[in-house]
Specification:
This protein is α+β, with helices and mostly antiparallel strands. It folds into two domains: 6-79 and 198-220, Glutaredoxin; 86-190, Glutathione S-transferase Yfyf (Class Pi), Chain A, domain 2, CATH 1.20.1050.10. Helix 1 (17-25) packs across helix 6 (155-170) and helix 4 packs parallel to helix 6. A four-stranded mixed sheet has the order 2-1-3-4, with helices on one face. Helices cover 57% and strands 7% of the residues. It has nine helices and four strands; from the N terminus they run E-H-E-H-E-E-H-H-H-H-H-H-H.
């Protein structure tokens, strides 16, 4: 096994994308094995790699890690993106989980019918602008710093930038009423490792298309 983490997932965003983001923010190179057939998935099941019979799975530091939250927590803690003490860590956890709630709407979006997509798009924008973004705007205003926690880059910042860009793909001016989040986006996007991940040719995945949806449905038998 090489020294690089190896990611097992589909060639698309889904739950693995936040792991790609965090590894990239930490400056960690990684390899990927894309699942394209049911046979690949069943092989992982048969050899016991998927503890709960689910992907994502990340092979790293001699472990085969599953469960997205556990993988992200490990990466954040290992690479000093998880705060300096328990109080900072619980804030990071709170913000990450809030962002996760918003992301969940977007991750399921490609799998909806055309009719449901129209309804869900309005719901995503309403949730982002009415529930989630106001929280982070208030946090940034309250402490006057460039980062959400401890005035240094953390997992919470990386996760929020990912979510902001995902919502902007649905509505480009979604931050128009949030000046501090606009500044936050510019600041976090300019960090060298993150800037590199945002450039063409990186391992960042595009907006999920029909091919991605069909592959996931086929491999997981979602019919």
């Amino acid at each position: 096994m090489s020294g690089k983490p190896k990611l097992y997932y589909f060639d698309g965003r889904g739950k693995m994308e936040s792991i790609r983001w965090l590894l990239s923010a930490a400056g960690i190179e990684f390899e990927e094995e894309f699942l394209t057939t049911r046979e690949q998935y069943e092989k992982l099941l048969q050899d016991g790699s998927l503890l709960f019979q689910q992907v994502p799975m990340v092979e790293m530091d001699g472990m085969k890690m599953v469960q997205t939250r556990a993988i992200l927590s490990y990466i954040a803690a290992k690479h000093n993106l998880y705060g300096k003490d328990l109080k900072e860590r619980v804030l990071i956890d709170m913000y990450v989980e809030g962002t996760d709630d918003l992301m969940a709407f977007i991750i399921k979006f490609p799998f909806l019918s055309a009719e449901d997509k129209e309804k869900e798009l309005a719901n995503i924008i309403e949730k982002a602008t009415g529930r989630y973004f106001p929280v982070y705007e208030k946090v940034l205003k309250g402490h006057g710093q460039n980062f959400l926690v401890g005035n240094r880059l953390s997992w919470a910042d990386v996760h929020l930038l990912e979510a902001i860009l995902m919502v902007e793909e649905k509505k480009s001016d979604v931050l128009s009423a949030f000046p501090r989040l606009q500044a936050f986006k510019a600041n976090i996007s300019s960090i060298p490792a993150i800037k590199k991940f945002l450039e063409p040719g990186s391992q960042r995945k595009p907006v999920p298309d029909d091919k991605y949806v069909e592959t996931v449905r086929k491999v997981l038998r979602m019919y």
